[in-house]
Specification:
Blueprint lengths: L2 H11 L4 H13 L16 E3 L2 E3 L3 E3 L10 H5 L5 E7 L12 E4 L4 E4 L8 H9 L7 E5 L8 H12 L5 E5 L14 H16 L6 E6 L5 H14 L3 E4 L19 E4 L3 H15 L5 E4 L5 H10 L3 E4 L1 H6 L3 H15 L5 H4 L9
Helix pairs in contact: 5-6, 6-7, 7-8, 8-9, 9-11
Length: 353
């Protein structure tokens, strides 16, 4: 697809209601109407994350392909890895519509989806037939009406874990009531223990990551880092969406839900750097929040991330942005004399703390 065609497609998509445009984007992927450069890679971009060999460190964040409907074309879209979900034990419709809002002036979005998904049974069937090769993960969620949310995470992993390379424990979505309470020290330790126990029953051993919120105090961040290190999980994803609304423009800035995109970049990167300083390289970190360019991906890596993820930027830059960022990142690493991603990780952590 040419740049012109992608530009026209984006302009047409922005004339549609956001959630409908999102559905059409998934259909376009499956119809072969989007760029398919394959996994963009080079000796400099290839990196190892928690035992996973990535062609490049630019991943797709959870939320874009909630139900694992477009895994194959996404793996050919330039990403180094793809995360589907969030997935809950039982299907659920999520919150009432409208629940997705574009903030074009801010290159941002607000969503309050509420873990709408097809449920673990259906998603497991789709993941079971995904193409071999490529790194795919699943974001684990809990049902809104669950009486034991901690057990929900373990159940989803038990059902889907044999078909993925990593699983993310998502206790940081602001759109399921009291979910973020599971980030507390005691609750989090118990939750992670249950998930890791569920992994022991699998034929494979997917990496287990923890995704945290950006709206945390320094002591909260220190507590989470301590629990993560003690638990034996394989990585931390920093961060999910924010409840902060400072400096937004347009009519949707006050909508309830999680804010993603450019306004989140600074806040999420500061949390990432704080984690990097506390953990001192003892656990890999994945940086997400406001990544929309190669420069921003590079900044996250220099702040302490071994890999990055993006989603909202695709709304404004198109699916071709993944390959563009990966190639640009290669150039930036070369410019600064780094032979690989690992050499750059944490090289500028102090600038962010």
């Amino acid at each position: 697809m040419s740049d012109l065609l992608q530009s026209v497609g984006l302009k047409l998509a922005h004339l549609l209601e956001p959630e409908r445009a999102h559905r059409l984007a998934l259909k376009a992927l499956n119809a072969g109407l989007t760029p398919k450069p394959g996994p963009v890679t080079s000796a400099r971009l290839r990196t190892r994350l928690a035992g996973l060999d990535l062609p490049n460190p630019v991943g797709l964040a959870a939320g874009f392909d909630k139900n694992a409907e477009a895994v194959a074309p996404l793996l050919q879209s330039g990403f180094g890895f793809v995360e589907v979900g969030a997935v809950t034990p039982r299907p659920q419709p999520g919150n009432p519509k409208p629940r997705l809002f574009r903030l074009a002036q801010d290159r941002a979005a607000i969503n309050r989806f509420g873990f709408n998904n097809d449920g673990m049974e259906v998603v497991a069937e789709r993941l079971a037939i995904r193409p071999a090769g490529g790194i795919v993960g699943i974001n684990l969620g809990a049902n809104k009406d669950s009486t034991d949310r901690a057990t929900d995470f373990a159940r989803v992993l038990a059902k889907t874990g044999n078909f993925v390379d990593f699983a993310t424990v998502n206790v940081s979505s602001p759109n399921t009531e009291k979910l973020r309470d599971l980030q507390g020290k005691a609750a989090l330790a118990g939750l992670l223990a249950g998930v890791l126990q569920a992994r022991e029953g699998l034929e494979t051993r997917p990496a287990v990551f923890l995704k945290i919120a950006p709206d945390l105090e320094p002591q909260d961040i220190a507590d989470i880092a301590g629990v993560a290190l003690e638990s034996g999980i394989d990585g931390i994803i920093a961060t999910n969406t924010t409840l902060d609304r400072d400096g937004l423009h347009g009519p949707f800035g006050a909508e309830k839900g999680g804010l993603s995109g450019q306004p989140l970049f600074g806040k999420s990167t500061r949390v990432l750097a704080q984690l990097a300083k506390i953990t001192e390289g003892r656990i890999p970190l994945i940086g997400v929040g406001g990544v929309g360019s190669a420069e921003q991906a590079y900044a996250k890596i220099c702040a302490g991330a071994s890999a990055v993820q993006l989603y909202t930027a695709l709304v404004y830059g198109g699916i071709g942005l993944a390959a563009e960022i990966a190639r640009g990142l290669d150039d930036l690493l070369a410019r600064d004399g780094f032979n690989n991603v690992a050499e750059a990780v944490g090289s500028k952590t102090e600038e962010w703390v």
